[in-house]
Amino acid sequence: MDTATTPPPARPAPKLRRRDFLKIGALGLVAYGAAKALPTALTDEPEVAHAPLQYLSNRQARVVAEAAATIVGPGTRAALESGEWDPAHDVDTMLMRMPAAQRRLLGVSLHLFEHGGWGLTPFSRLPREKQAQYADDWRTSRVGLKRSVWGFLHAAAASSFSSTAVGWGMMGYPGPTVPGKTHSGRAPGQTAGYTWDERVP
Amino acid sequence: MTVHRFKAIVIGSGAGGAPAAAALAETWGDGVALLEAGPRLGAGDFTQIERDMVPALYAGSGLQATADGSVSVLQGRVVGGSTVINDALCFRPPEEIVERWSAYGVDIDWAELNEYADQVEKALGVTQMTREQINRANYLVGLGAAKLGWAGERLRHNSPTCVECGFRHFGCSYNAKQSMNLTYVPAAEAAGARVFADTEVLHLEQAGDGWRVVTRGDRFEADIVVLAAGVVQTPAILLRSGIPAGEGLQFHLQTLTWGDFAEPVDGFNGIPMAYGVLEFADVYGKRGPGYLIEGVANQAMSFAVQPQVQGPLHEEVLRRYRHLAGAVMLLRSAGRGRVRVKDGHAVIDYPLVEADAVRTMDYYRRSVEMFLAAGADRALVSHRSTGWLTAPPAELRLAPGMQYLYTAHPFGGANRGTVTDGEGRVKGQKNLWVLDASAFPEAPGVNPQITIAALSLLGASRITDSL
């Protein structure tokens, strides 16, 4: 009888099941996000005083403000800095009207926008020309999620700016015809004259 | 908890619900109730401040969109429904819908529908806009179309005493626009009906041959229920009630183009939408690709969100605001989506299909050509791939989010021929009807308020005839 021990059959390598793969991937993403957020968390500057916000953190407010000025245009910076335009406050008000699930989604979107680049510097701390390039990459990205996030930021920023006195001034918009607290109301009716071309039915 | 008992309850007070309530109240008087999820507001509440009015008047505070965010879905949520925030445009029901709907087993008596359309137009004071009522922004659309030999016309509207303030999208501050809150809702009340505003319906429960209507507050019971809560909420209420619905959603897809003119256009003054180009329609005997081009001029905030540019170009576009004339596509979509319910809330799914992309691209080219023919120095389309254009654009990549798409005209979800029979009765249910645009098996291809209201009156006559 051959008593020599034979090695046990080789055990198959453990399979990485789909669920485990997703868990590892998610952990990796969390770790990556944390690593990227850490340097800025440690070196955070004192926060600028804002009107009290219900939903946005001060950091999220800064992301919104930087994104808004980048998207609407460089001529809006002065209004942002003087406080005549406060897009973060307007987004906060918008969030108040949303269902909780939608609010959470937008919180995640802001985080992705802030930390979604390849470098370690978050969006809100990039030099302005790089912020512009970064936002433009999201605007026309092949990734639908990025385009959606830009779309939200654009809608929020543009609607907020165009609701301010500074925005109305830039656009040459005379405001409502009905008097209000901040405007006297203009006369309704057309102001741009023209002569009807008889070819037009 | 208070329980209100009625002969008939109509859910929704827009172009579908209000005429039905008025017609039923002619028969049953105070046995009729009209329930509306939104508030009851009047001219004094319409401040024309866009940032206040959008959340006050629009469904989802103006943020309602498809699940992927690629199409904004604009609907009114106020007594009067979307007629409070619409452009007051009035088109006769196109005869083509009779033929198209027959493919779904829906037979409409064309002559009868037209009689009801006549009644609606009389009640709403519909007139064709005069030349003097066409502002420069809309005139430039007509001029470009005329120079290219395209068919166009001054549109008809239900605002016979319009003061031309330009704020139709935010409720009429002058009580000039004859929306449902000023016409059929008061008519229903005059006939005895009761209106319950701020009354959101959650679901329906069968109670014998009638229905229990469960809301967030009081409870309602009725022998007959008419659903007219709009294209998103009507199917959602059915689904929450355990009744299959939601499929067959269709849009009039809308996107924008602007011509930049040397002289100020000042489109914010005057009637926002007043001139229509019918050349590319597939209704009224036209055999085009299936879209209208309508002149459109928006107030500051509504305009600012539409151009899909950023940075210095965005700022330049804002600075050119006074010089821009706008046009909007109204495309009878080829795609079909659905309304579903998740955690009790309505979710809208809509896929952008190739046929829609091709025709949207066709619209972008034609509309740029139109503005250049009208004398614009350059044009801009609501797409992320281009800036100012001095010639019609080459191929643009059309994908969700690449172009600004919205719809103020959703249809389907409780389609006639599928969810309901040809007249609006929900199949397999007693005394439950759908009389709004969610019952349309196909989009009409034109601004729909007259068609919706005429079909509502037709349906109401079937209800009273059947009992």
Task: Explain what you see.
The complex is a heterodimer of chains A (201) and B (467). Chain A is globular, with a radius of gyration of 26 Å. In chain A, helix 2 (58-72) packs across helix 4 (87-96), helix 2 (58-72) crosses helix 6 and helix 2 (58-72) packs across helix 7. Chain A has helices at 18-42, 58-72, 77-82, 87-96, 100-115, 128-139, 144-161, 165-171. Chain A is mainly α. In chain A, 54% of the residues lie in helices and 0% in strands. The longest helix of chain B is centred in the last third of the chain and has 20 residues, at 354-373. The mean pLDDT of chain B is 97. Chain B is an alpha+beta fold and 467 residues long. Chains A and B meet through helix 2, helix 6, helix 7 and helix 8 of A and helix 2, helix 5, strand 5, helix 8 and helix 9 of B.
How far apart lie the N and C ends of chain A? 109 Å
Residue fraction in strands of chain A: under 5%
- What general form of chain B does the structure show? globular
Number of strands of chain B: 20
For the largest beta-sheet of chain B, the strand count, sense and barrel status come to: 11 strands, mixed
User: What is the H-and-E element order of chain A?
Assistant: HHHHHHHH
Instruction: Tell me which protein chains meet in the greatest interface and how many residues each side has.
Output: A-B, 55 and 66 residues
Q: Which regions of chain A contain 5 or more consecutive residues with pLDDT less than 50?
A: 1-50
3D shape of chain A = globular
Which secondary-structure class do the elements of chain A indicate? mainly alpha
Mean pLDDT of chain B: 97
Task: Classify the helix fraction of chain B into a percent range.
Answer: 25-40%
Number of DSSP strand runs of chain A: 0
